[in-house]
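Input (structure):
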């Protein structure tokens, strides 16, 4: 590819073809092309594809393709994401007290507010906690909420669980992560050092 991209029109045409078939290329190859030819048109997308990847699965050739600086920034970003997930999990959504004063109120047909609040705590840790902190395949905030919405919560009334899930869905658990990934990929794309 390199020997044919000497003229600007040829380079623009070739990069446009790559962008139109971006899903055919592995992320390290795309990042290598971006670095080699100063093309920024698909760097951010390729970097986003690398974020969920297990760094241990990247071969040394792939690490060389993405470059040491990008690799180190990616590793730091993944550490920041893990820390963010732990913070989200530790900041459990306010559970109901026995009178329903914290968070959304219990549904009118809830038969035991105190038991409902206890089971909410258990459901939070057993669904959202496991999904976000799973060591092998950590899930996103959205996937963790799907697990929570689908699980049986013991003595928690279905209406109360639904109210809490709707309340939580209004929060931006993944919004901060998306902004962080976008900011880091833009910094790298522009050749700046990113403090992650």
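Output (sequence):
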């Amino acid at each position: 590819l390199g020997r044919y991209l000497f003229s600007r029109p040829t380079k623009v045409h070739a990069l446009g073809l790559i962008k139109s078939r971006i899903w055919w290329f592995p992320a390290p190859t795309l990042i290598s092309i971006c670095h080699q030819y100063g093309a920024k048109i698909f760097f951010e997308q390729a970097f986003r594809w690398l974020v969920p990847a297990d760094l241990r699965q990247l071969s040394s050739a792939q690490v060389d393709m993405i470059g040491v600086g990008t690799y180190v920034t990616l590793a730091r970003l993944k550490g920041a994401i893990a820390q963010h997930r732990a913070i989200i999990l530790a900041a459990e959504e306010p559970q109901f007290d026995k009178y329903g004063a914290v968070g959304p109120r219990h549904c009118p047909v809830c038969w035991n507010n105190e038991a409902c609040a206890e089971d909410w705590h258990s459901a939070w840790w057993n669904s959202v906690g496991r999904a976000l902190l799973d060591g092998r395949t950590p899930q996103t905030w959205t996937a963790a909420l799907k697990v929570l919405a689908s699980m049986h919560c013991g003595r928690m009334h279905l209406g109360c669980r639904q109210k809490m899930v709707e309340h939580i869905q209004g929060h931006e658990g993944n919004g901060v992560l998306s902004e962080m990934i976008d900011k880091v990929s833009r910094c790298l794309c522009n050749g700046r050092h990113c403090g992650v």
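Notes: The longest helix spans residues 68-90. Residues 94-170 form one domain.
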